[in-house]
Amino acid sequence: MHHTPSKAILTLLVAALAGLSLSAQVRRPHKTQAELERSYADKLEQSWFVDGGWTDDYDLARKRAAAQNKFIFAYFTRTYAP
Amino acid sequence: MRSLGKRVILFASIATRITDRKHDDLLRQKNGRGYPALTVMDAKGEILTRDIDRNIAGVEKAVQSVLDHAWLAKRIDAGVKGLDVEMLMVELRLRRLSLKQARWDFRRCMSRLGDASRTEADSLILALEIEAWRAQPGKDKGAALNKGCYEAFKFGRRPVAGSRADEYLFYRPVLAGAGHAEDLVTFERAFQIQAPRLQEKIDAAKTKGGSSYAQRQLDALLGVLTRLRAARK
Asked: Are A77 and B13 a contacting pair, CB within 8 Å?
């Protein structure tokens, strides 16, 4: 008889993925769009951004760089995680 | 940052996950590896340097190197000769060269480099080598990294002081390689550099009231040191 363990393996895989997905949800709760908007607004109010002369508008940064013949110093950050 | 703002346009790319926000995923579009990241771009948005060390000196050095590169490129385009050594140093600082190209250019310019430039160039090439060892697939990655860093350290090669390679990438594999090779002398020399750094992290974690991964690292290193010393007797 041809024995295939595929069903058992598939079951284990699905269970493992479900577990992973669950643990991911536990670790990082899903934020609503309103919460994300609020986090973004908070970031824009931080002193390094307000007082430092930064822009977060990519098109504007490139336009200014071209007009002033300067390079762009870019800081990549995010609002949804530390 | 204020003086920096006079020389460059300061742009903060803030990823938000807000649906349909323009350029929200710019880091990925620029093939960046992870947050936070610092880089210098030209007015078209082309990346000119990667992996800037996240400290004031690293930022200043990167910005200055970009300005130097533009100035040198203009002079070379104008037909000025004999700038290849200066260009090599700037391109190494900007990490714009592949490892193969960097080694080739370094050999070509070697006799015309002063002692300080030669040491700096070698350190910058070592950082490229570390990246190449780390990029090895699977099991080979750890072994190549440990062996490469261990041998580099033994031959007196060091990353640029205060650089990412110096602070995070180099000494751990050096110690692992020395431990693997049962090389007590090299292990002790590297340990003398790494132990105070780990202790600093442990102390910092203690003031915050937490435990530290550095403590486990230091304990493991002390274990290897004890074993190597016992084996020598």
From this structure: yes
Q: Inform me whether the C-beta atom of residue A77 falls under 8 Å from chain B C-beta atoms.
A: yes
Residue A24, pLDDT above cutoff 50: no
Bridge partner list, B15: A78
Chain A residues inside the 8 Å CB shell of B8: 70-73
Q: Which of B117, B41, B13 is nearest to A66 (CA)?
A: B41
Contact (CB<8Å) A61/B9: yes
H/E run at residue B44: none
At B12, which helix (H) or strand (E)? Answer: strand B8-15
* A37, containing H or E segment: helix A33-44
Is residue A32 classed as helix, strand or coil in its secondary structure?
coil
Task: Provide the 8-state DSSP code for A28.
Answer: S
pTM of the model: 0.76
Segments of B34-155 assigned E as strands = 37-41, 47-49
Tell me what ipTM this predicted complex has: 0.74
